């Protein structure tokens, strides 16, 4: 174990977060997401919920401040309803670390899959919330003048 690293962050996930560059995206996918069909780099976080992963990840990386929406979720298909508590739960974690983050963008289902194909990695979680998938775009850590 490492001090300051949440126990839900596996060694593989820590490595991925470290290797991602600014502008790279990571998908935190619900248990039903077709991760293996969308991306060659799939990490397993079975049994871990996305809000817990957000807590652990956002303590380690910042979100891209140079894009209009550094966080995206899948939009509902016509006729489906969203559970607003899912986004509210995610937003609570985001605001804890990065309170100036713009509103979460909603991306049409198949456009979301296309983004997942280009993402640095997909993390398959134990979350079973409908439309619980989320994309994070990694930012640049500001350089502090000495």
Question: Can you tell me about this structure?
Answer:
It contains five helices and six strands; from the N terminus they run αβαβαβαβαββ. The chain has 146 residues and is α/β, with parallel strands linked by helices. The protein has one domain (11-137): 3-Layer(aba) Sandwich (RbsD-like fold). α3 runs parallel beside α4 (84-97). It is globular. The protein starts with 10 loop residues before the first helix and ends in a 9-residue tail after the last strand.
Topology record:
Layout: H1 11-19, E1 25-29, H2 35-38, E2 42-45, H3 50-58, E3 71-74, H4 84-97, E4 105-107, H5 109-118, E5 121-125, E6 134-137
Parallel strand pairs: 1-5, 2-5, 3-4
Antiparallel strand pairs: 1-6, 3-6
Descriptors for this entry?
146 residues; alpha/beta; RbsD-like fold; six-stranded mixed beta sheet; 5 helices; 6 strands; 32% helix; globular
